[in-house]
Amino acid sequence: MKIVKTKAELCNGCGACMTACSKVLYKVEDPEKSAIRVKKKSEAPNSYEIYVCNHCGECVPVCNVEAMYQHKSGAIRVKADKCVGCYMCVGFCPNNVLFVHPEINEPIKCIACGSCVRACPTGALSFEEK
Amino acid sequence: MTANIQEMRMAHKLLARMDYELGKVEKGYTNRTLYINLSDNTIKSKPVTEQMKEIFVGGRGFGLWLLWNAVTGNTKWNDPENEIIISTGPIGGITQYPGAGKSLVVSLSPCGSVMDSNVGGHFGPLLKFAGWDAIEVQGKAENDVIVYIDGNKGYVTIEEAPKEDVDSHLLVEQLTDMYADSEEDKRNIAIVSAGRGAENTLIGMLNFSFYDVKRGVPRLKQAGRGGIGTVFRDKKIKALVVKYAGVKGDSNGPADKQKLINAGIKLHKEIHDLDKLQNRMREVGTAHLTEIMNDYDLLPVMNYKYGSHPDAVKLHSEVFKKYFTQGMPDGCWHGCSMACAKAVDNFTLKTGPYKGQKVCVDAAEYETIAGLGSNCGIFDPEYVIEANFYCDTYGLDTISTGTLIAFIMECYEAGILNKEITGGLDLRFGNAEAAMELIHQMGNGVGFGKIAGLGVHRMKKIFVEEYGADPNFVQDIGMELKGLEYSEYVSKESLAQQGGYALTNKGPQHDEAWLIFMDMVNKQIPTFEDKAEALFYFPMFRTWFGLNGLCKLPWNDIEPADNATTDEPAKVPEHVQNYIDLFNGVTGKNITKEELILQSERVYNFQRIFNLKMGYGTREYDIPPYRSMGPVTVEEYESRAERYDNQLKEIGYDIEGMSTEEKVKALRKYREDQYQKLCDAVYKRRGWTSNGVPTLETVKRLGIDFPDVVELISKHQ
User: Fold this and answer.
1) What is the CATH T-level fold of the domain B495-714, as seen in this structure?
2) Which of B379, B477, B486, B358 has the alpha carbon at shortest distance from B435?
3) Per residue in B430-452, pLDDT tens?
């Protein structure tokens, strides 16, 4: 499967990836509802960190209700109807790449669709084999 | 549904039905309770008043208030007027924070006192989401009944149910199958049940189920203490069943969900990072305590005579870890990343009615390991797991069962009991086979099990009156107070913990205060005033969990990395702040840590006064058996001679030439006197009279000066 890989040094902080992601996931343009997050690292120009899921799967056994699962594509996904919004997966994520929003019950999670990669104007994101 | 289950369901006879409007949970409350009377098949809705919420908060507080209004001072546990009330509390049912799905059960106990028991499983939260802050069951049915609450369709039924099994592991599986529409639907069912042993003893407990989606089996958590399972079967309740589909992160209607999210994720991260370095709750649950207690001489061995044993290594957590299924979800409510509820899958039973069958055992917690194991001198993990299984399915409290068998074994070895009395059971310490047979006899209400099942308090009387036991000896070694068997810690060397056990509302249970390390090991509370302050703060703080549907464990069985550097590490200040955030986040109120204690103080004092109403609740009921305070026998003294000799020297005795008997006596005089001084200090700090009754001033300050409360305590001022 292909996952999103990052080269943070190329990021200019434009946020296009977050907008594209939230549009795919929740049909809104809202970085707070995106599964990829760009955060400023320091005051230096173009100093950013990019957080996005690498589909390691550590969250799957943490989930008690089998909402977190491995899709046939290989991606780790959330079944929204099963999720009880406990966010154990968020706290146990080794890379801090699951996000929450008070209006959304389930954790906000990358589905490995690649839309953020397509939206990125600088080449900071790429879609590559895991 | 299999043909067998179909047949069971067809045999149900509908006795009553009430349809209701599905409610909405607003800021942690549905604002109504469900009242059931099994004598006349009444089902009705009762309003929750603002006063109830303000003074009693929820959970145990609601239970006590509803029970207070249902019984008189003359009501006995088996009168129809007695009730069983189950309520979670305003925070109960949130999914974002570990340990937030507890149910609190309140009833008049066969022990005599007003009992409360804190239990996991999904019943309390699903009951609330079905539209009810509490269920209050009064009266007695003629034949076995099931109460069913459908929280999606909005109806409640009372159904006669003659064909299902009574033992919990079978009954819960049958009812889960019966009321679920599909495999997927099983997760929406939660059941309260007991077992045959709850009918045949006075130490019956309640099992609260939850469906373990990954294992594909219903699991059982226990409201163990105080015989409420016995009350349940006395009312001819086979089960209470609730069904609710649709649990989400906002099902509890929080005022400010973000507060819950922030506190929850922070704690999940702490548990993820630190549990493996601290208590390993996710790996082995409370079983990790066995080795710690053994190392510190606090593990009860042979009816609390000793605090450690060379064979205790056979009961250490590493041994149990091999039996526990690892990497499976073991939280008893959603969002509990502490996940201490361990299970042994595919355990083949060696004895009893289910011999040869493979079962999933919810086993084993520390109290069960220490009670059924070391305290009976039995160091066999497979015995502990098997005994744990049978206690659970029979509906017997493992703590009371362990402590009472330990008492019987000491009486047997002391010659008070013999094979003639026990029906051939050779109940020496360490005899696992005889102990297992006794558990089966208790379950079935036959043989010596009929006497054992009455509990230590009643056995003491029988052993004196019928078998000629020395009343002073059985009083000293019978580890019960207020009718309840002690839980599994040796408190001899910690005066504060002697009070922690004996100055409790419901009896000697460590859920109010566990002060042994603070007192004995770390020596942080040296004076009477220090101990009294601890015996004020911790019981009040821990009462609060029971008002809100919370578990105690995520408070201090995981600690923030910098906890030791805070002002008061024993209180775990950061977690106290989490709880304040949870309460305010759910209810929209704005309480402080001082108001948190005040909320508890109201309910705690009310419960003390409730005991007074029932004929207890004064100083004479706060005096523990001497086994919990010091060495009763010469062999016990000699097992810790250096410690005891030093103490005698410190208090001015010249021990040269003193016999051990004289030393035992001298030490006892000193320790009993110390305990009385502790009582004086604690009563004063709690705002009670020297007889242990809350003063008029205290009840006025707390706003619980209802006319009947004032009338009652006025007689004792």
Assistant:
1) 1.10.599
2) B379
3) 999 999 999 999 999 999 999 99
